[in-house]
């Protein structure tokens, strides 16, 4: 029997914490709190003792929808990268690589262009991974950002790898001939 519940009809003694009603003691509820005396309990005279106490089922925790969607998008992102990698070989393009690419340009009626330059930056973002290529066109430095897994890139060939100590080689904007082959 739970604490605070006394339904002994035969007992002539009325418990200190209960109230006698119709020959038996009504139930009492325990009050939460700190005290220096024994257990403090409060009688329930105002409440309807005939109504049963309703127990609620435990709360089921759900993750926030944006977290679940982010997890699903990460899985789809990895699957897309794996699919592109099985279709064609993509070399490990890192900053400091001198690359030659065949690119199909949509604005130029799908004609293929050959570009040669140095990779000065790479941004890893799954299927949206990009790299920045710097090259000289008519003596003027031109930088282009290419998605690594783009279907417009037909071929990437690494001509040379220079040893660099930075992840972003933006300082080459001032001195382009430093790593030129």
Describe, in plain words, how this protein is organized in 3D:
By secondary structure, this protein is of the alpha+beta class. The chain has 2 domains: 1-54, no CATH class; 86-178, SH3 type barrels (Roll). It is 13% helix and 31% strand. The protein has 1 helix and 9 strands; from the N terminus they run ββββαβββββ. The strands form 3 sheets. A 5-stranded antiparallel beta sheet has the order 8-7-6-5-9, with no helix packed on it. A hairpin with a 6-residue loop joins β6 (111-123) and β7. It is elongated. The relative contact order is 0.12. The mean pLDDT is 79.
CATH architecture of the largest domain: Roll
| Rg (CA only) | 38 Å
Please give the CATH class of the largest domain. Answer: Mainly Beta
How many domain units? 2
Q: How is the largest sheet built, in terms of strand order?
A: 8-7-6-5-9
Unreliably modeled segments: none
Q: SSE order, as H and E?
A: EEEEHEEEEE
Query: What is the CATH third-level topology name of the largest domain?
Result: SH3 type barrels
Roughly what is the average pLDDT, rounded to an integer? 79
The count of β-strands is 9
Class computed from helices, strands and strand pairing: alpha+beta
Shape: elongated
The biggest beta sheet is recorded as: 5 strands, antiparallel
GO molecular function, one term: structural constituent of ribosome
Keywords: Ribonucleoprotein, Ribosomal protein
Protein name: 50S ribosomal protein L19, chloroplastic
InterPro entries: Ribosomal_bL19, Ribosomal_bL19_sf, Translation_prot_SH3-like_sf
């Amino acid at each position: 029997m739970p604490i605070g519940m006394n339904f002994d009809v035969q007992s002539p003694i009325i418990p200190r914490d209960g109230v006698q009603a119709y020959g038996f003691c009504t139930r009492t509820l325990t009050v939460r709190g700190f005290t220096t005396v024994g257990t403090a309990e409060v009688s329930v005279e105002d409440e309807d003792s005939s109504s049963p106490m309703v127990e609620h089922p435990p709360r089921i925790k759900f993750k926030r929808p944006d977290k679940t969607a982010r997890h699903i998008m990460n899985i789809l992102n990895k699957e897309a990268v794996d699919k592109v990698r099985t279709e064609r070989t993509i070399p490990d393009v890192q900053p400091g690589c001198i690359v030659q690419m065949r690119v199909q340009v949509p604005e130029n009626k799908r004609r293929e262009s050959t570009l040669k330059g140095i990779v000065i930056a790479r941004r890893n973002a799954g299927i949206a991974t990009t790299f920045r290529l710097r090259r000289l066109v008519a003596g003027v430095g031109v930088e282009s950002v290419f998605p690594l897994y783009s279907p417009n890139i037909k071929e990437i060939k690494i001509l040379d790898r220079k040893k660099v100590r930075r992840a972003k080689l933006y300082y080459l904007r001032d001195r382009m001939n430093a790593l030129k082959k």
